[in-house]
Backbone:
C-alpha cells in the first residue's frame, strides 16, 4: 500500500472517530425515544465554545475536558427537559420538529452571543507537533482523537453492557411497557441518555476545534447531519452500527476527496447526502440495524 | 391486603372498568376470571400504575405497615413496594439475554449478592432457563418465555404478585408446574392475584375468585362456591346448559 | 356561492392593498410586500405538500434554488452570457427568454426534479423523508456551487433582469391560493387528508397513496420553483445558499403555526412570521443581535407545539371562505379523528394511554 493511501486511511480514521463520537449519542437517543434529535450536532458546537471559554480561563487540560463534558451534559439535559419531555406521547414528527426548533434556537443564541465570525481555536501545546509512524505522518491531535475515541467507546460499551443504567437503557429501548413494569425509572433513564450522548458530542466538539483550528456557531450543523448519515448507514438505533457507520463515512469521505481528481472535491457534501438518500432507499435498516417492526 | 374501591378506568375513548371493587386478602391466592376484553388486563395495569383510574381508590396494605394509596404512585414506586406485575406471555426484553431479563426483574434491588443467589434459584426452579442464560429472550419457545416472565417477576421478591395468563400457550404438564409454583409462593406468604382464561384451573387452586364481565364484577366469593355457581359453570367452566 | 364571493372580495382587498402600497409607500415597503406575499404562496403550497398529506418534506428551498437558477439563466441578457456562463450550450447562450415562459420552465424543472426524487424518496416515512429532503437541499446547493460554468458558483448570479413587480407576485399568490384551495376541496384533497389520518384505512378504500403523495410533492415543488424564479426577478440576484435550511425551517414553522392542512392558517402565519422577522430586523441591527428573530421564531414554535399542537386553525378554514351554511359544520373541512401516526415514547406522565404491547 502506498504511503499516500495509508495517510488517507489515517485521516479517514480521524474523521471517522469524530463522526462516531457524535453518531453514537444520536443513536443512543433514538434507540430509547425513537426520536431523531436534530439538535444533536449543535451540542458539538456547544462543546467547542465551552472549550474556548475554559481555555481562556487557563487551567490544566483535564479541567478543560471536564468543563466541556459537563457543559455538554447540562445542555443535553436542558434540551430534554425544555423541549422533549413536554412533547412525549405526541406524534413522532412533532418531536422531530421540536428538535429542529431547538437546533435553530441554539444556533441563533450562539450567533447572538458569539457573532457569526469564526474564532481561532487555541490548540494547546500538548497537542501540537507531529509524529512519524513509518511512512505516515500523524499530528498529535489525530492520534489523540483516534485513541481517546476508542477509549471512550470502550467506556461506553462497559456502561451499556454491564451497568445498572446501561441495562435500564437497553430495556427501555427493547420494550417500554415491560421496562416500566420492572420499575425502570423512565424519565431518569431518558435524561441520562441525553446527558451521556450530549457529553460525547461536546467532547467531539473540543476535538473538532483542536483539529480544524476554528469554531463558529454553525459548525455543528454539518457534522450533526453526517452523524445522522453514519447512523443510517450502520442502522439507526444500533450503537455498534453508529460506530461502524461513522468510520465508514469518515473513510469514504476522505477517500472520495483523496482519490478523485481535485475538481470533484467540492462535491464532497453532495456525495455524502446523495449517498444518504440512496441508503435510505436500498438499505433502510442499515448494516447492523433490525427492521422497525421487530424492534418495536 | 389489596383493595380496589369503585375503580373507573378509561382507555382511549371508552371506559374499560366501570366501578370495580374487589379485595385480595393478604397471603391468599385470588383468581380473576372473565372472557377476552372483560377488562382483566386493564385492571392489572391499573394496579401497577400504567393506567390511571379517573375515579375510585386503590389501596395496598402490606403486613405490618401503613396502607399506601397506589393510584397516585409511579410504576417505579409501586414496584419498590413489592407489587409486581407479571405481564402476559410475550412482554419480555426480546433482544436481551435470559440473564439480563432476570437482572432487570430485580432492577429496583440493590443487594447484588442476593440477586445473584436468586438468579441461581430461578435456574433450579426452571432448569431450562439456566441452559439458555446467554440466549436472547426472543429466541425462546413460547413456554420458555412464559417461564422467563414468571422468573423475572419473582426476581423482584414480590409481596403481591399480579399474574396475567401465566398458563397461556403452555402444555398441560407445564401449566401444572406453574400452578404448583404459585401454590408454593402462597405458602411462603406471597399474596397473589391471578388472571386466567382457564377458569377451571384458576378456581381450583384459588382461595377466592371474582368474575369480570364488561368491566364490572358480576360474581365473587370463595373459589369453591364459584365453582358450583351455575352461571359460572355455564359461562366459564363449560358445564351444563 | 357565498364562499366564492368572499374569496373575490379578499382578492380585491389584496389588490387594493398592493395598489395603495405602491402609490403611497416607499420602494422598501413595496419590496417587503412582494416578499411577504411570496412567503404566503410558499407556505400555502407547502400546506398541500405537507399539511394535507402528512408528509414531512423540507425540500422547498431546493426546488426554489433550481427554479431561480433556471429562470435566471434563461432570461439573462445574451451579451453578458458568454462572460458569466461560459459553459452554456449555444442554444441557451444565444437566447434571451421572456418572463412567463422562463418561469414556466423553471416550475417544470423543479417539478421534474421532484418527480424523480419523489418516486424514490416518498417511500420513506416521517422524519426520514425530512432528513432526505434536507439532504436534497445540500446536494442542490453543492451542485450549483460547483457548476460554475453555468452558475458562477459561489459568487452567485447578479444582474438578473428585474422582470417582476408586485402585480406579478400578486397574480402568482392569487393563482397559487386558487389552485391549493381547489386541491384541498376536491376529492383528491379529501383523500389526502384521509390518508394523513389513517393511511391503512385510506388504502383499503382504494386511495392510491403513493400517487397522491407524489402529486402533492410535485405540485409543491412546481410552486416553489416558480416562486424561486419570480423572486430572482424581483431581487435580481441569486446565490447557491440563498434558499437554504433556515428558509425550510421558517416554512415548516408557518405550516405548524397555521395548523396542519389549513391554507388560511398557513397564509396568516406566513404574514405574521415574515412581518415579525422584519420588525425585529432594526432591533437586531442596532443591538447587533443577529439571529434574534430566528431564535424567537424557534421559541414560538416550541411553545406552539407544547400548548397548541394543532396550530391556529387545526386543518380548518374560516367559515366565511368555505361559504357553506351551518349544515355539516361549515368551518370543518376535515374532522380529526384519533391519529394513528406513530408515537414517540409516551411514558411517565401520559395518563391512561399505555403503549400497546410492543413486541
Residues:
Amino acid at each position: 500500500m502506498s504511503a499516500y493511501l495509508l495517510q488517507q486511511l489515517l485521516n479517514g480514521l480521524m474523521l471517522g472517530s469524530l463522526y462516531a463520537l457524535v453518531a453514537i449519542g444520536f443513536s443512543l437517543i433514538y434507540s430509547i425515544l425513537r426520536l431523531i434529535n436534530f439538535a444533536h450536532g449543535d451540542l458539538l458546537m456547544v462543546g467547542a465554545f465551552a472549550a474556548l471559554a475554559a481555555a481562556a480561563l487557563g487551567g490544566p487540560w483535564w479541567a478543560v475536558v471536564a468543563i466541556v463534558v459537563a457543559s455538554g451534559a447540562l445542555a443535553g439535559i436542558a434540551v430534554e427537559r425544555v423541549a422533549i419531555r413536554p412533547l412525549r406521547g405526541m406524534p413522532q414528527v412533532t418531536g422531530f420538529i421540536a428538535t429542529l426548533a431547538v437546533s435553530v434556537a441554539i444556533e441563533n443564541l450562539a450567533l447572538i452571543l458569539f457573532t457569526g465570525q469564526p474564532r481561532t481555536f487555541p490548540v494547546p501545546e500538548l497537542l501540537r507537533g507531529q509524529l512519524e509512524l513509518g511512512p505516515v505522518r500523524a499530528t498529535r491531535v489525530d492520534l489523540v482523537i483516534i485513541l481517546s475515541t476508542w477509549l471512550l467507546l470502550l467506556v461506553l460499551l462497559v456502561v451499556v453492557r454491564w451497568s445498572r443504567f446501561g441495562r435500564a437503557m437497553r430495556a427501555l429501548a427493547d420494550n417500554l411497557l415491560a421496562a416500566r413494569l420492572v420499575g425502570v425509572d423512565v424519565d431518569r433513564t431518558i435524561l441520562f441518555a441525553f446527558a451521556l450522548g450530549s457529553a460525547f458530542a461536546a467532547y467531539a466538539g473540543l476535538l473538532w476545534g483542536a483539529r480544524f483550528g476554528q469554531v463558529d456557531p454553525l459548525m455543528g450543523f454539518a457534522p450533526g447531519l453526517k452523524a445522522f448519515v453514519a447512523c443510517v448507514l450502520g442502522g439507526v438505533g444500533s450503537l455498534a452500527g453508529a460506530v461502524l457507520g461513522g468510520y465508514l463515512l469518515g473513510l469514504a469521505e476522505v477517500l472520495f476527496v483523496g482519490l478523485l481528481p481535485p475538481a470533484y472535491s467540492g462535491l464532497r457534501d453532495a456525495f455524502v447526502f446523495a449517498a444518504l438518500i440512496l441508503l435510505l432507499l436500498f438499505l433502510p435498516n442499515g448494516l447492523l440495524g433490525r427492521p422497525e417492526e421487530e424492534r418495536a | 391486603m389489596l383493595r380496589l374501591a369503585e375503580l373507573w378506568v378509561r382507555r382511549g375513548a371508552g371506559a374499560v372498568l366501570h366501578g370495580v371493587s374487589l379485595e385480595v386478602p393478604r397471603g391468599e391466592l385470588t383468581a380473576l376470571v372473565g372472557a377476552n376484553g372483560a377488562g382483566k388486563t386493564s385492571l392489572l395495569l391499573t394496579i401497577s400504575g400504567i393506567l390511571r383510574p379517573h375515579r375510585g381508590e386503590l389501596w395496598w396494605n402490606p403486613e405490618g405497615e401503613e396502607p399506601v394509596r397506589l393510584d397516585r404512585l409511579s410504576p417505579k414506586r409501586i414496584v419498590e413496594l413489592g407489587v409486581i406485575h407479571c405481564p402476559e406471555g410475550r412482554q419480555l426484553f426480546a433482544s436481551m439475554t435470559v440473564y439480563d431479563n432476570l437482572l432487570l426483574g430485580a432492577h429496583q434491588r440493590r443487594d447484588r449478592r442476593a440477586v445473584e443467589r436468586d438468579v441461581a434459584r430461578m435456574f433450579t426452579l426452571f432448569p431450562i432457563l439456566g441452559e439458555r442464560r446467554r440466549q436472547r429472550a426472543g429466541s425462546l419457545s413460547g413456554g420458555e418465555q412464559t417461564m422467563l416472565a414468571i422468573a423475572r417477576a419473582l426476581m423482584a421478591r414480590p409481596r403481591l404478585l399480579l399474574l396475567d395468563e401465566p398458563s397461556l400457550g403452555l402444555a398441560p404438564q407445564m401449566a401444572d408446574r406453574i400452578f404448583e409454583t404459585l401454590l408454593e409462593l402462597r405458602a411462603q406468604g406471597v399474596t397473589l392475584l391471578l388472571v386466567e382464561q382457564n377458569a377451571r384451573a384458576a378456581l381450583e387452586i384459588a382461595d377466592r375468585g371474582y368474575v369480570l364481565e364488561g368491566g364490572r364484577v358480576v360474581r365473587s366469593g370463595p373459589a369453591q362456591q364459584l365453582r358450583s355457581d351455575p352461571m359460572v359453570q355455564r359461562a366459564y367452566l363449560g358445564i351444563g346448559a | 356561492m357565498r364562499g366564492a364571493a368572499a374569496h373575490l372580495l379578499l382578492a380585491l382587498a389584496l389588490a387594493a392593498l398592493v395598489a395603495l402600497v405602491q402609490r403611497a409607500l416607499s420602494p422598501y415597503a413595496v419590496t417587503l410586500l412582494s416578499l411577504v406575499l411570496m412567503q404566503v404562496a410558499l407556505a400555502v403550497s407547502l400546506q398541500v405538500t405537507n399539511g394535507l398529506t402528512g408528509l414531512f418534506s423540507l425540500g422547498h428551498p431546493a426546488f426554489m434554488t433550481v427554479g431561480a437558477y433556471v429562470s435566471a439563466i434563461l432570461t439573462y441578457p445574451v451579451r453578458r452570457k458568454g462572460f458569466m456562463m461560459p459553459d452554456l450550450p449555444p442554444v441557451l447562450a444565444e437566447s434571451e427568454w421572456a418572463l412567463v415562459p422562463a418561469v414556466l420552465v423553471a416550475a417544470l424543472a423543479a417539478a421534474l426534479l421532484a418527480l424523480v426524487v419523489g418516486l424514490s424518496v416518498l417511500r420513506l416515512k416521517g422524519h426520514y423523508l425530512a432528513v432526505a429532503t434536507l439532504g436534497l437541499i445540500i446536494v442542490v446547493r453543492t451542485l450549483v456551487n460547483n457548476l460554475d460554468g453555468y452558475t458562477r458558483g459561489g459568487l452567485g448570479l447578479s444582474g438578473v433582469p428585474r422582470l417582476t413587480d408586485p402585480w406579478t407576485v400578486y397574480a402568482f399568490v392569487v393563482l397559487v391560493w386558487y389552485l391549493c384551495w381547489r386541491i384541498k376541496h376536491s376529492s383528491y384533497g379529501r383523500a389526502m387528508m384521509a390518508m394523513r389520518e389513517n393511511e391503512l384505512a385510506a388504502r383499503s378504500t382504494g386511495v392510491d397513496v403513493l400517487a397522491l403523495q407524489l402529486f402533492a410533492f410535485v405540485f409543491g415543488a412546481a410552486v416553489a420553483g416558480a416562486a424561486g424564479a419570480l423572486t430572482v426577478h424581483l431581487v435580481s440576484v441569486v446565490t447557491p445558499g440563498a434558499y437554504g435550511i433556515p428558509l425550510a425551517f421558517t416554512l415548516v414553522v408557518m405550516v405548524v403555526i397555521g395548523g396542519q392542512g389549513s391554507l388560511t392558517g398557513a397564509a396568516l402565519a406566513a404574514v405574521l412570521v415574515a412581518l415579525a422577522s422584519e420588525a425585529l430586523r432594526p432591533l437586531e441591527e442596532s443591538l447587533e443581535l443577529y439571529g434574534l428573530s430566528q431564535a424567537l421564531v424557534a421559541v414560538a414554535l416550541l411553545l406552539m407545539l407544547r400548548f397548541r399542537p394543532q396550530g391556529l386553525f387545526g386543518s380548518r378554514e374560516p367559515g366565511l371562505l368555505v361559504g357553506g351554511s351551518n349544515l355539516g359544520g361549515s368551518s370543518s373541512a376535515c374532522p380529526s379523528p384519533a391519529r394513528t401516526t406513530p408515537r414517540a415514547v409516551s411514558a411517565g406522565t401520559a395518563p391512561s394511554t399505555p403503549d400497546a404491547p410492543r413486541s
